[in-house]
Amino acid sequence: xxxxSLIKEDITKVHADAIVNAANSAxxxxxxxxxxxxxxxxxxxxxxxxxxxxxxxxxxxxxxxYNLPAKFVIHTVGPVxxxxxxxxxxxxxxxxxxxxxxxxxxxxxxxxxIAFPSISTGAYRFPVERASRIxxxxxxxxxxxRPDMQxxxxxxxxxxxxxxxxxxxx
Length: 170
Ligand code: AR6
Fold this sequence. Notes:
- Helix 4 (128-145) links the parallel strand 5 and strand 6 (151-156).
- The chain has helices at 32-41, 43-52, 88-108, 128-145, 159-168, and strands at residues 3-8, 18-22, 60-64, 72-76, 113-116, 151-156.
- Helix 3 packs parallel to helix 4 (128-145) and helix 4 crosses helix 5.
- By secondary structure, it is an alpha/beta fold.
């Protein structure tokens, strides 16, 4: 079975078949990891995103990697965490969908190594402990179902995020 790796790194530097972008539903670039990926990839990425035209929350779209070391970028749109109790299940399901749909789309395109940032835990304010449990569960389930998937790398920006994912992986 493929492995899960946890690293502290800037995702734009990661050598994998694909890296995942925590995008917005308009796919027009933004701050955080989205901004970093667009800056490193160059303007071709934004042009391709604009042609795609958008992506609903929980789904994923694929583009080229342009100037990035990765061949592809998978753009997924995480849920905004409302912190309202009645919304939690729906938000959790949407976040799980981000990981599941990104992995499935990558796999269909021949990707066997892929790097994820911690989706929704920055500007979209998802608590990182809750998000990390969902991410790890979905990644493990996917690796169990596709024995030839080689590696899923979780890329953490900062110690707090790294600790949360380390705990979730236990
Ligand atoms: N490499 C890896 N992780 C990073 C990097 C990087 N270069 N830069 C930031 N992170 P966020 P979201 C981490 O806000 O919460 C954008 O404007 C960051 O520390 O990037 O899904 C989009 O356009 C955090 O742990 O994504 C959307 O509008 C994680 O990436 C919105 O933000 C996610 O933080 C999406 O918000």
